[in-house]
Write a structure and sequence with these properties.
alpha/beta, Glutaredoxin, 2 domains, five-stranded mixed beta sheet, two-stranded antiparallel sheet
Length: about 170
């Protein structure tokens, strides 16, 4: 029986190598590369007007969170983001990009009246920003410096946003 499992495993690995799947898995990075220029994705304002994401932070460091109202990691991260926004208001742009999965602009608008105050909010109806930033999950944060270069990416409810902002301010 062990020999059968071994042959099956060897066959699976060989097929993966043959089609190039294994090297991609081993070297895959989640999200946009550190050092990359932040893309200028097309998004919408919460009232449905088209907007360019990069225009919201042109010439200024920015913290961009890709989030959803239903995301528990996003909610866990909110106090950290709120504290950073209060500390760096006026010096750093804080941007929320709401993903369109299982939510509407109306739901997002209602949510933002009580959460992520002080952020500039956008809605990614077509997934352009999610695709351009290679967003792996909600609660994904991208921090860019004043030149629009990505200095930090992270995902999850516990992130060191302050350290990322300090990189962007250098």
């Amino acid at each position: 029986m062990i020999r059968v499992v071994s042959k099956s495993l060897v066959t699976s690995v060989a097929i993966a190598l043959l089609f190039g799947a294994a090297p991609r898995v081993l070297t895959a990075q989640l999200g946009i590369d550190i050092g990359a220029k932040a893309p200028d994705a097309t998004v919408e304002t919460l009232d449905g007007r088209p907007a360019q994401l990069a225009a919201a932070f042109a010439g200024k460091p920015a913290v961009i969170e890709f989030w959803a109202t239903w995301c528990p990691n996003c909610r866990e991260l909110e106090p950290t983001l709120a504290a950073a926004q209060a500390k760096h208001a006026g010096k750093v742009a804080f941007i929320g990009v709401s993903v369109s999965v299982n939510q509407s602009p109306e739901r997002v608008r209602r949510y933002t009246t009580e959460h992520l105050l002080g952020f500039t909010h956008f809605y990614d109806r077509r997934g352009d920003a999610v695709g351009d930033y290679d967003v792996p999950a909600t609660s994904y944060v991208v921090v860019v410096d004043r030149n629009g270069k990505v200095v930090y990416t992270g995902v999850g409810g516990k992130q060191d946003i302050e350290a990322a902002i300090q990189k962007a301010l250098k």
